[in-house]
Amino acid sequence: NIHLYVCRDYDTISKKAAGLVGGMVSVKPNCILGLATGSSPIGMYERLAEMYRDGITDFSKVTTFNLDEYCALSEENDQSYHYFMREHLFRHINVPDENIHIPSGCTQDMEMECQQYDAAIAAAGGIDIQVLGIGSNGHIGFNEPADAFIGPTHLVNLKESTIKANARFFQSEADVPRRAISMGIGSIMAAKKILLIAHGANKAKAITATLEGPITPEVPASILQLHPDVVMMIDQEAAAGL
Ligand code: GLP
């Protein structure tokens, strides 16, 4: 049930991915989009902004839920995922502010925040299409390799490898938050459709393990083998191990 597209380059992935997400919005104007951060979807977001500017896609009835957020960074911090989404997508399109959901990493009662986040997704009717990137260790959202899959939205201690990988966005490695809040594997798997985007040689191992390896919480993305409707758009470098 995984439809794999090996694309010529990142630009082709972005165009194709925006076509799929924009197509969903055209067919179902009040759809629920699950969105992701990281560098992988940036090109797709640029395309979606273009589609809005060109009058092709109208986001006025769309609702969005993001996968994750760092703990203890304010929403104004330029490394927060709130900031990222505003800069790369939301300020360029017409999705109403009140329809935008991103977990808060700064709430007093984090357990409550996690519960309420999953409840809000369910109340909205569930996610129609969930966009995912993938970490080089196979993480999705911030679901890190672990002994067991965690279903609901939850707090995460980031792995050393993820902190190192994300340090490039911060002044120093010490500035990278150690904790995050993330939709769980259950929250992600409940989406009706999943779109995973990956490019570059440093994703090749994770992509091979995801598609061809055993389903194991050591490679969180491998659970996607059990989802009924997954589309993966990757470039040749990310596909090198297949
Ligand atoms: C972060 C995010 C993930 C993302 C991953 C890969 O850890 N929490 O959602 O998929 O990084 O990021 P990139 O797309 O920059 O390679």
From TrEMBL:
Signal peptide: none annotated. SUPFAM superfamilies: NagB/RpiA/CoA transferase-like. It holds the Pfam family Glucosamine_iso. Pathway: Amino-sugar metabolism; N-acetylneuraminate degradation; D-fructose 6-phosphate from N-acetylneuraminate: step 5/5. The keyword Transferase does not apply. It is an enzyme of class 3 (hydrolase). This is Glucosamine-6-phosphate deaminase. GO terms for molecular function: glucosamine-6-phosphate deaminase activity; identical protein binding. GO terms for cellular component: cytoplasm. The active site is at 68 (proton acceptor), 137 (for ring-opening step), 139 (proton acceptor), 144 (for ring-opening step). InterPro entries: Glc/Gal-6P_isomerase, Glucosamine6P_isomerase, Glucosamine6P_isomerase_CS, NagB/RpiA_transferase-like. Catalyzes the reversible isomerization-deamination of glucosamine 6-phosphate (GlcN6P) to form fructose 6-phosphate (Fru6P) and ammonium ion. NCBIfam families: nagB (TIGR00502). Belongs to the glucosamine/galactosamine-6-phosphate isomerase family. NagB subfamily. Its EC number is 3.5.99.6.
